[in-house]
Amino acid sequence: MKDSYDLVVIGGGPGGYEAAIRAGQLGMSVACIEKRVYKGEPALGGTCLNVGCIPSKALLDSSHRYEATKHDLAEHGISTGDVAIDIEQMIARKEGIVKQLTGGIAALLKGNGVDWLQGWGTLVDGKGNDKKVKFTALADDSETTITAKNVILAAGSVPIDIPVAKTDGDRIVDSTGALDFTAVPKRLGVIGAGVIGLELGSVWRRLGAEVVVYEALPSFLAAADKDIAKEAGKMLKKQGLDIRVDTKVTNAEVKGDQVIVTSEAKGESSEESFDKLIVCVGRRAYSEKLLGEDSGIQLTERGLIDVNDQCKTNLDGVYAIGDLVRGPMLAHKAMEEGMMAVERIHGDKAQVNYDTIINVIYTHPEIAWVGLTEQEAEAAGYEVKTGSFNLAANGRALAQSEAQGSIKVVADAKTDRLLGMHAISAGAGDIVHQGMIAMEFVSSIEDLQLMTFAHPTISEAVHEAALSADGRAIHA
Ligand code: FAD
Ligand code: NAI
């Protein structure tokens, strides 16, 4: 550890560690302070690598393979013996992936000359040229004040608690607990039909749990395009997720080895019992111990760190990124903001395009989108035209037994410009990257119509959706 750095990054999640690496590449002296201890070891990678994106996708993959092997192979003429799942092995595989990736980040920091300081960082004073950061070491609680020309705050977020369902880390858990069940719950309750509820609800449903998802809002997947949300709702229900919209949980209590959940829908109250309950009703910015009393940093009314479009706070040389600031709580958004902040510090003109941040829900099929929904485009005053194509008529989707879902494009009818792409399909998360690139290059629907898409691919449905926007789809 040095006494002073060009840049101190507080938080070693995807936002913070990528920023630190970029700064190292640009020749700055950099420290990245991270206090996380994962399974007894100091760990980089933040929520995403330890208890978020990566472990959840590892379990989604294992559970999908299990379900597909058990139920989907007969139509291919493949027979298997009894199919069983060893939960301990599934969790061990997930841990192996987490360890490999977080260890890789430590090596990358080292390789780029970044000092990883294991402990808590507090911005004591962010004013002036030499900012003061207090470092409290995990090892012995010792406190050191370091100075920094620039600071990036990247402390991320934590799950929101609700008083009616207090987590106990055993029967009532948050997303972190739900990544570590040691057995498949017979009945699993989930509060919140958001991204975590659908992904982790799917994992345990595929492995055999009966899953009930309580959603307080009257609509399902309110942020998605209405057509896609409707299709997703139907598909997930058919898969066995019992999603109850407009239903408020009013109490959850552990009694013996059960959680008794009381909920209210249409004025009627009812009780159900579960082996486990996951509370996933959103996340909140995490700023405990991050800011000293005289840090000088301005917060928003909602407790987020106030930043401009370039992630600059009210103090020169202090940036804040990722889940700590406005915008979607997504790893790729945090990463790009980290790079932008460092490049701005370096004097470059980097900018994140917030209009093309992709959302992906990793159910099967995946649900993904970029840009405006049809409803948002209308509300923004566009004269809207849309086109969509059903995967039931896509040869590749049929050939790989994934002929479910659809792809939809949203465009400005006056200029033909693509405004959004929405997909529920195999690999939807990859598919909508085509929409992102097209939007970045200000493409029109006609551009997508005139390109040659390889046959047979799921991507052909993008071509057909664009053709359908002008009533010219071939296979519809
Ligand atoms: P974090 O990843 O939260 O990292 C912040 C780090 O800062 C933490 O490790 C914390 O320990 C550390 N820290 C905090 N305060 C201090 C301090 N004072 N001193 C030192 N260190 C500190 N996003 C996606 O894009 N795709 C996905 O598939 C996806 N899946 C998810 C699944 C789950 C179950 C969850 C919970 C989240 C998922 N997310 C996903 C969201 C994603 O994890 C976050 O958006 C992302 O991690 C935010 O990155 P960040 O760097 O801002 O913060
Ligand atoms: P979320 O915001 O996606 O969904 C929370 C849901 O809970 C909403 O539908 C909300 O209406 C509902 N809700 C809120 N209070 C409630 C209550 N008292 N009772 C019942 N329902 C209630 O939040 P979630 O799922 O916790 O995920 C947090 C964040 O993590 C996401 O917003 C996303 O940014 C990130 N994430 C991203 C993933 C991805 O990109 N694939 C995967 C998992 C998480």
TrEMBL record:
EC number: 1.8.1.4
Residue positions binding FAD: K57, G121, D323, M329, L330, A331, H332
Residues reported to bind NAD(+): G192, A193, G194, V195, I196, G197, L198, E199, E215, G282
Cofactor(s) annotated in UniProt: FAD
Catalytic residues, chain numbering: H455
Ranges for domain Pyridine nucleotide-disulphide oxidoreductase dimerisation: 359-466
Record-linked SUPFAM superfamilies: FAD/NAD(P)-binding domain, FAD/NAD-linked reductases, dimerisation (C-terminal) domain
Keywords attached to this entry: Cytoplasm, Disulfide bond, FAD, Flavoprotein, NAD, Nucleotide-binding, Oxidoreductase, Redox-active center
Pfam annotation, one family: Pyr_redox_dim
Listed GO biological process terms: 2-oxoglutarate metabolic process
Catalytic activity line of the entry: N(6)-[(R)-dihydrolipoyl]-L-lysyl-[protein] + NAD(+) = N(6)-[(R)-lipoyl]-L-lysyl-[protein] + NADH + H(+)
Highest taxon in the source lineage: Bacteria
Domain FAD/NAD(P)-binding as annotated: residue spans: 5-338
Cofactor note: Binds 1 FAD per subunit.
Subcellular location as annotated: Cytoplasm
GO CC aspect terms: cytoplasm
Enzyme class, broadest EC rank: oxidoreductase
Family: Belongs to the class-I pyridine nucleotide-disulfide oxidoreductase family.
Miscellaneous comment: The active site is a redox-active disulfide bond.
NCBIfam families assigned to the protein according to its UniProt record, in alphabetical order: lipoamide_DH
Protein name: Dihydrolipoyl dehydrogenase
Organism of origin: Psychrobacter arcticus (strain DSM 17307 / VKM B-2377 / 273-4)
Phylogenetic placement of the source organism: Bacteria, Pseudomonadati, Pseudomonadota, Gammaproteobacteria, Moraxellales
